[in-house]
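RECORD TYPE: inverse folding
INPUT: structure tokens
STRUCTURE:
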């Protein structure tokens, strides 16, 4: 099989997440503090690896033209993708491109599997972004996409009218009628977060009726707090491709959280949509990403330890008798469980930092975590395979004389922290680790 024909051979699953943590996610408002919130090359490599392990098959990246750094990172990420093909199958790397030859050329030269074209179609975008009328948009984009289609027939092509939800349906269809025959998917981005579940249902139905054989891609911003429900409605309405980021990070308040989406599909018994996703890897993915952003998994994230935290005395007591009293959801199946923090020889210092600090309450800074990571990488190979990696880590932490945080009285009873002894553990239904503590 040639590289190029892979997509034509691929049978899309009922739900294909196009994760855009490495594109939209890098536009998060957190990045205002560039020195704190910044994905290094290694961060991006680890995130891509984790996304692939979790079953994502489509990953969106910036067009290499945006910066020399992004161009170099594109090549590095492609190498990570290639290294996982034997184990995990092929993952398509899609470049986000303006309808501009330079963007397109840079993406093709970098070896992108597909191009995600976008251009603003709403009155606001037309007036303030590029100044073109609808007919000019078509006149500019159609020949460009035609050309790409002709010369690179195996590239996956998507076209989005940016700000689609502030674009009159007639205007959107005017542009989509002209472009639809050339592309594999049409995007439906709610760029400024104005959509509601009702408008999503209407729009999706109208577009599916007009383009019955076309695949659609949803992209919902969180401005009104609706990104997740809008996404669920779109999936229900038959949108197969969905943009997400880990933790929902993105421009302004972000977009749909990948793990929240899969979690909710599970709770809604939409099991078809979960085909091929590694659910137990989702909490570790949240932790990894949060750690890259130097934060904890945000408390409003559904797949989070927060949702297993029980603070009120009444709650704690009830949970000790039966976790179901205040835990309605099977979060353990999504990896919200200490044993799912994937520690191993490849663990980065971030995860080690997180594990020791947040789960085991050691006091340590990042430099210390780096030092421990280096020792851990050596030692974990010398131990027998039965020795749990966390045991090795704890031994190192103790050898280095790390102090443990003094917890307030009663805090150990909080099931979330998994520090509550066997009783809390058993009550919460966690698997007891074989090595004991
Ligand atoms: C952007 C805007 C975008 C694009 C989405 C898409 C949006 O940051 O360039 O290409 O479908 O929200 O419209 O993220
Ligand atoms: Cu966006």
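DESIGNED SEQUENCE:
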């Amino acid at each position: 099989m040639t590289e190029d024909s892979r997509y034509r051979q691929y049978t899309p699953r009922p739900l294909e997440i196009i994760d855009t943590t490495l594109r939209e996610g890098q536009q998060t408002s957190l990045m205002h503090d560039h020195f704190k919130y910044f994905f290094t090359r290694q961060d991006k490599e680890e995130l891509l690896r984790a996304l692939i392990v979790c079953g994502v098959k489509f990953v969106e990246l910036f067009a290499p033209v945006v910066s020399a750094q992004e161009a170099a990172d594109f090549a590095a990420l492609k190498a990570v993708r290639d290294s996982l093909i034997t184990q995990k199958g092929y993952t398509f790397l899609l470049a986000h491109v303006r309808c501009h030859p330079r963007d397109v050329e840079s993406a093709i030269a970098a070896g992108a599997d597909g191009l995600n074209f976008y251009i603003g179609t709403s009155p606001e975008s037309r007036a303030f972004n590029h100044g073109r009328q609808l007919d000019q948009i078509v006149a500019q984009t159609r020949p460009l996409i035609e050309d790409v289609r002709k010369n690179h027939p195996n590239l996956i092509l998507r076209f989005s009218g940016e700000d689609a939800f502030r674009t009159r349906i007639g205007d959107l269809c005017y542009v989509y009628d002209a472009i639809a025959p050339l592309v594999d998917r049409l995007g439906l981005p709610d760029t400024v977060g104005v959509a509601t579940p009702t408008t999503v249902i209407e729009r999706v139905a109208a577009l599916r009726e007009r383009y019955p054989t076309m695949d659609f891609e949803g992209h919902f911003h969180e401005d009104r707090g609706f990104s997740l429900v809008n996404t669920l409605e779109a999936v229900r309405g038959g949108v197969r491709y969905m943009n997400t980021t880990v933790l929902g990070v993105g421009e302004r308040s972000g977009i749909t959280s990948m793990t929240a989406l899969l979690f909710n599909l599970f709770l809604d018994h939409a099991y078809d949509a979960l085909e091929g996703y590694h659910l137990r890897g989702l909490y570790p993915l949240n932790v990894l990403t949060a750690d890259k952003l130097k934060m904890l998994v945000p408390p409003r994230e559904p797949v989070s330890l927060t949702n297993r935290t029980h603070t009120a005395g009444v709650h704690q007591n009830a949970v000790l008798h039966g976790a179901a009293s205040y835990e309605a959801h099977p979060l353990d199946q999504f990896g919200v469980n200490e044993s799912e923090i994937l520690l191993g020889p490849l663990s980065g210092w971030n995860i080690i930092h997180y594990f020791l600090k947040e789960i085991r309450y050691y006091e340590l800074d990042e430099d210390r975590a780096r030092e421990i990571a280096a020792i851990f990488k050596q030692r974990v190979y010398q131990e027998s395979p039965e020795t749990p990696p966390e045991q090795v880590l704890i031994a190192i932490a103790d050898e280095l004389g790390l102090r443990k945080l003094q917890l307030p009285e009663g805090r150990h009873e909080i099931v979330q922290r998994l520090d509550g002894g066997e009783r809390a553990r058993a009550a919460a239904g966690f698997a007891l680790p074989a090595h004991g503590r």
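NOTES: Residues 157 and 184 are 5 Å apart (CA to CA).
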